[in-house]
Design a protein that fits this description.
It is built from 13 helices and 14 strands. The protein is of the alpha/beta class. It has two domains: 267 residues, Rossmann fold; 101 residues, Anticodon-binding domain of a subclass of class I aminoacyl-tRNA synthetases (Four Helix Bundle (Hemerythrin (Met), subunit A), Up-down Bundle). Strands 5-4-3-10-11 form a five-stranded parallel β-sheet, with helices on both faces. Strand 12 and strand 13 form a beta hairpin. Helix 11 runs antiparallel to helix 12 and helix 11 runs parallel beside helix 13. The longest helix has 19 residues. It is globular and about 75 Å long.
């Protein structure tokens, strides 16, 4: 599966700072110190609907992580999946009387278009669950053969008790985990499971549903969590720098994935930091496909909204915050974009060297994009009020805003 084209990231003078970011597993800030190549895995979409602003906010956060690392002169090895086979996809295809493969391909293509328009840097490896199945099957077999998985009516479940570190990613208690499991695709009430929280690794073939050869597992399809584990281990290995996604993935997805990988390899941890973006709401409720309260990036683009304004709207809220999308949020972003473009269109201006360092400092401090925007606002206000004599300043501001914030002026 191919990703989307990369926009050029301008080079800036000097060097950025190491990133200090909130780690869910410790509930505190950690300073990331990758080697020459920083490794990040971000969970991708289930392509049964278009990219909504909740998606965009999440991928915007991890795009900033990449940009901070690139500014430290590191390379970035970024991997993202596409869950192109799962119950929600099949249910939507059945509802709309559409082939599930065609649905997945169409929505994945639209996602690529949205990411390109928003100037999100693409992953080096963009892997679909279906294409990962040949690598998933042996992992499930290994877990089963090691006694860390068991069969129930043909389905294969992972035993969470096989991992002594289970629960350390989300830090939830058993009652909360059980409730979230039921809410987020698990089946804690299924009779016969050794532990209600045990997640499915391999679902035996169901009538009328697609299935694949699972060797000794029989025909079926993979569970959600093992998909990402197989892809991450294949392309990043254990102990990569950041596992990222929305805050609703901390449990069960990232918790279960970490346990799968740790039992498979005997190593700990799966990722050095678990980083989660907040939820975007509309009309008082979390924006989600199940609720149908969505604002789509593609719809905004069709209405003529500049993607740079959409990105500025996302940047105006801290990535970990839960916040609500409103028309006013977008209007404020459009006004800000107009001010910035007017400021950099002049032939000279106030020195921007200090501004570049302010943006770097803000982003290195747990991706504080709102503080970075305010720093650019101050420079633009000085430009409007008094101008300046530095002929290179407007160009430097444009390059810095592009390189570090992903906004093209």
């Amino acid at each position: 599966m191919h990703a989307w084209p990369a926009s050029e990231v301008p080079a800036l003078p000097g060097k950025g700072r190491d990133l200090r970011i909130h780690d869910t597993s410790t509930d505190g800030l950690v300073t990331l110190d990758p080697g020459p190549v920083a490794r990040i895995y971000v969970c991708g979409i289930t392509p049964y609907d278009a990219t909504h602003l909740g998606h965009a906010a999440t991928y915007n956060a991890f795009d900033l992580v990449q940009r901070v690392w690139l500014d430290t002169k590191r390379q970035v090895h970024y991997v993202q999946n596409v869950t192109d086979i799962d119950d929600p996809l099949l249910e939507r295809a059945q509802r709309d009387d559409e082939d599930w493969v065609a649905l997945a391909e169409r929505e994945t293509s639209l996602f690529r278009e949205d990411m390109t328009a928003l100037r999100m840097l693409p992953p080096e490896h963009y892997i679909g669950a279906v294409e990962a199945i040949p690598g998933i099957v042996p992992l499930v077999e290994r877990l089963r053969d090691a006694g860390a998985a068991y069969e129930l009516d043909g389905d294969i479940y992972f035993s969470v008790e096989a991992d002594p570190h289970f629960g350390e990613v989300s830090r939830y208690d058993a009652d909360v985990m059980r409730a979230l499991s039921a809410e987020r695709g698990g089946d804690p009430e299924r009779p016969g499971k050794k532990n209600p929280l045990d997640p499915m690794l391999w679902m035996a073939a169901r009538d009328g549903e697609p299935s694949w050869d699972g060797a000794s597992l029989g025909r079926g399809r993979p569970g959600w969590h093992i998909e990402c584990v197989a892809i991450a281990l294949d392309h990043l290995g254990m102990g990569f720098d950041v596992q990222g996604g929305g805050s609703d993935l901390a449990f069960p997805h990232h918790e279960m994935g970490a346990s799968h990988a740790q039992v498979l390899t005997g190593e700990y941890p799966f990722a050095k930091a678990y980083v989660h973006a907040g939820m975007v709401a509309l009309d008082g409720e979390k924006m989600s496909k199940s609720k149908g309260n969505l604002v789509f990036v593609s719809s905004l683009r069709r209405d003529g909204v500049d993607p740079a304004a959409i990105r500025l709207a996302l940047l105006s809220r801290h990535y970990r915050a839960n916040w609500e999308w409103t028309d006013q949020v977008l209007r404020d972003a459009q006004d800000r974009l107009a001010r910035w473009r007017a400021a950099v269109s002049r032939p000279d201006g106030p020195s921007a060297d200090e501004l570049v360092e302010e943006i770097r400092e803000a982003l290195a401090d747990d991706l504080d994009a709102p503080a970075a925007l305010e720093a650019v606002d101050r420079w633009a206000a000085r430009q409007q009020a008094q101008g300046g004599t530095d002929e290179g300043a407007p160009g430097l501001v444009s390059r810095a805003v592009d390189a570090l914030l992903g906004v093209a002026l």
